[in-house]
Specification:
alpha/beta, 40% helix, 28% strand
Length: 207
C-alpha cells in the first residue's frame, strides 16, 4: 500500500483550517449570548470574561453537534521546567483550548485573551508582550488572540493603541489590519515573519 504523504499533509492542513473556523464561530456565538444576557461589567478582570464565555461555549449546541471539547486555562507542560519539586506551579497557562478527534488524531486550537482599553498604554503593551509575542516565541502553541475591549472605541484601541506601539518599536510590518468576515465585525489579522498570520477577535464589552 502506497500512502501519498503530500495529500495526507494537505488533508491535515485543510482540517486544521476548518477546525479553527469552527472554534472562532464558537467564540463569536458565545460573545453574542453574553451580550444578550448583559451579565457583565466593564470593571471585570480578564478571567471573569473568559469564564463567562467558556460557560456559554459549554452550553452551545453548535459545539456539541461538531463534537468539540473546550477547556479554560490549560497548563502547558515544559520539559525544561520539569526538573524540580513544585515545577507545575510555574507552568505557563493559556486561556482557552478547543479539541476534537479526527481519524484517531487529536486536534487542538488555542486562544489567549487580554483586556483592552482605548487609552491605556500598559494594556496595549501587555497585549503585545504577553499575547502576540508569546505566540511568536513559541511559548504558546499556534492559535489566536482575543481582546476584551472594556473602555473606548475598537478602531482607536487598535490603530492609536496597539498599532502605534508596534510602529514605535519598528514593527510596522506586524500591525493589525481589519479583515471582513461575515460572522464578526471586529476581526483583525497580523503577519509575522517566520511565523505566519495571527488572528485577532476584538470583543466589544463597552456595549
Amino acid at each position: 500500500m502506497i500512502i501519498d504523504m503530500g495529500n495526507n499533509f494537505s488533508y491535515r492542513n485543510a482540517f486544521k483550517s476548518s477546525f479553527e473556523k469552527q472554534c472562532i464561530q464558537l467564540i463569536v456565538e458565545a460573545y453574542q449570548v453574553v451580550l444578550a444576557e448583559k451579565k457583565y461589567s466593564s470593571d471585570w478582570l480578564e478571567n471573569d470574561f473568559t469564564s463567562l464565555l467558556n460557560n456559554a461555549i459549554e452550553n452551545s449546541s453548535y459545539r456539541i453537534h461538531n463534537k468539540i471539547s473546550n477547556k479554560r486555562e490549560k497548563y502547558l507542560f515544559s520539559e525544561v521546567k520539569a526538573d524540580h519539586k513544585g515545577f507545575a506551579d510555574s507552568e505557563d497557562r493559556i486561556d482557552l483550548v478547543f479539541s476534537t478527534f479526527r481519524a484517531n488524531k487529536e486536534y487542538c486550537h488555542f486562544f489567549e485573551a487580554k483586556r483592552l482599553k482605548e487609552s491605556d498604554s500598559s494594556l496595549h503593551k501587555r497585549y503585545i508582550a504577553t499575547g502576540i509575542d508569546s505566540f511568536l516565541s513559541g511559548k504558546y502553541p499556534k492559535g489566536c488572540m482575543i481582546a476584551y475591549l472594556v473602555e473606548g472605541n475598537v478602531h482607536n484601541a487598535i490603530n492609536s493603541g496597539i498599532n502605534k506601539m508596534l510602529i514605535k518599536h519598528n514593527r510596522e510590518k506586524e500591525i493589525l489590519y481589519r479583515v471582513n468576515i461575515s460572522i464578526h465585525e471586529y476581526y483583525y489579522e497580523s503577519t509575522h515573519l517566520n511565523w505566519g498570520i495571527l488572528k485577532h477577535l476584538i470583543l466589544d464589552f463597552t456595549i
